[in-house]
Amino acid sequence: MFKKPFPHPQKSKLKSSAQRAIRQRIATEFPLLAPHLDFIIPKKSQLDVLKLPDRISLYSLDGQVLFFQHFDDQLIPHLRIVHQYPDCFPIIQTDRGATRFILKGAHLMCPGLTSAGAKMVDGLEKGAVVGVKGEGKENACLVGIMKMTSEEIARINDGVGVEACHYLGDHLWKYVGE
């Protein structure tokens, strides 16, 4: 999603009602993150929305992007949020061979999740937001959306298992807001 540089985004401040709706949506979509919401988005702070082409919205606080979404789809956390609160997101692990492709922005294929060295979380549904780390790595290097359930990935073992949304070193990672 952020392989290519994006133009300077159009920035606007969110109304307090929209900000409350975003906080509520985050608490609903990521229930384990709900206790940390006051640290991530303090109640008296001002969230900004940055509009990019292709209807991508970045939600930022003090120049740091926290979440993003495409159209009105689900909110996806920035990789830095996943690094700060790794226990709040399902984290799956790929084998060593898939890591170099992930760091170039490739989608995660099912064989990279079922081979030796990979670890899959049971019970993940299609459309779930997951963090992906490489074998032997401490932190996640990709945030993506499950394209199949974890059971289908194990059974079918072919095709795209996780769609890459944001990865370490992409243009969103390098973005420094003002």
Could you give the topology of this structure?
Blueprint: E1 10-13, H1 16-29, H2 37-40, E2 48-52, E3 56-61, E4 64-70, E5 76-77, H3 79-84, E6 91-94, H4 96-102, E7 108-109, H5 111-114, E8 129-134, E9 142-146, H6 150-156, E10 160-167, H7 171-174
Total strands:
10
CATH topology of the largest domain: Sulfate adenylyltransferase
- CATH class type of the largest domain: Alpha Beta
Low-confidence stretches: none
Instruction: Compute the number of helices.
Output: 7
What is the CATH architecture annotation of the largest domain? Answer: Roll
The profile of the biggest β sheet is: 5 strands, antiparallel
Give the averaged pLDDT, no decimals.
Answer: 94
- Whole-number count of domains: 2
Strand numbers in spatial order across the main sheet:
1-2-3-4-5
Residues in β-strands, percent: 25-35%
Family: Belongs to the TMA20 family.
Subcellular location: Cytoplasm
Keywords: Cytoplasm
Pfam families: Pre-PUA, PUA
